[in-house]
Amino acid sequence: MLFRFxxxxxxxxxxxxxxxxxxxxxxMHVCGTHQDTLVRFGLDELFSSVGVEVRQGPGxxxxxxxxxxxxxxTTLARCGKTVVTFGDMAPVPxxxxxxxxxxxxxxxxxxxxxxxxxxxxxxxxPQRDVVFFxxxxxxxxxxxxxxxxxxTPPNFYVLSAHRLIPPAMEAxxxxxxxxxxxxxxxxxVSTIIGTTPYERISAKYRVPQVVAGFEPLDMMxxxxxxxxxxxxxxxEVENEYSRVVRADGNxxxxxxxxxxxxxxxxxxxxxxxxxxxxxxLRRSFEEHDASKxxxxxxxxxxxxxxxxKEPTGCRCGEILRGLIxxxxxxxxxxxxxxxxxxxxxxxxxEGSCNIFYKYRRK
Length: 362
Known about the structure:
Oligomer: single chain
Shape: globular
Strand content: 15-25%
Mean pLDDT: 95
């Protein structure tokens, strides 16, 4: 499959055009699926050979969830709540252990594939307090909103760790730790929010952007479009993924998010608190907000919030900011493996360390 797409006429032409540009640029994507495509098909090496360095930013929702948020979920499990979440979230370590550790202790922690499954658990077992540990960007937040806008059982609660991608992109540019010549924007997030929210970033920071799909040729075309903008001195938002993404996005999904969530300042793993980058349940949905409903159970944890730091030696935060590659972490493929992860970047299928370990480990 790797050679099939590389040998296609379109792929060959894109590579030839990139070579002709005589490039020396660094671009960033903020999407775990893009990272998987990039490494699995050897595109990172191909782009590097034509003067394009591609770095992964904070595009893995499991990875950017903070140790404190994980500790909130494990605390509720140990207090007798039924905690349900996605499979990638359960093994992520934190101070006091992961959700899988809590399950090994006898706590009721369950893996689901969707928020709808979590709601079904609450309906089937009305005697239990069921807490859905909700992670994800604009792609999954509408599904959480839709669940809360339907006939939600009174024993169903949400612990929201939802986040928004554009504010994180701005935060990276403000930090200025890394030269970013352009962004490849995530196709699935853009399906919901459209291309318009990115335009302010291009105007304010003079940075080109291209929304791209997830097939190898999508990424190749996205990089080519970005390289053209950089060479021509343009700073626009272009849409390679036009077969799915529209300028105004999915307006119905956006309206559901606005109805259910308030935008709040939120800390991201590896980044400082980012203004208006998180989603918290509105007051009208307070009875389903786990952080409010179980405030007493979480009170002591909140007082110890400063204790919840990155694992010793783990450089996941720097990887999420695009400062280093996974192999530059001294724990990578040694003390930190998918079977025994130290940080979330090795746990999640969208984490850069997990992807490098799977496809590139020597």
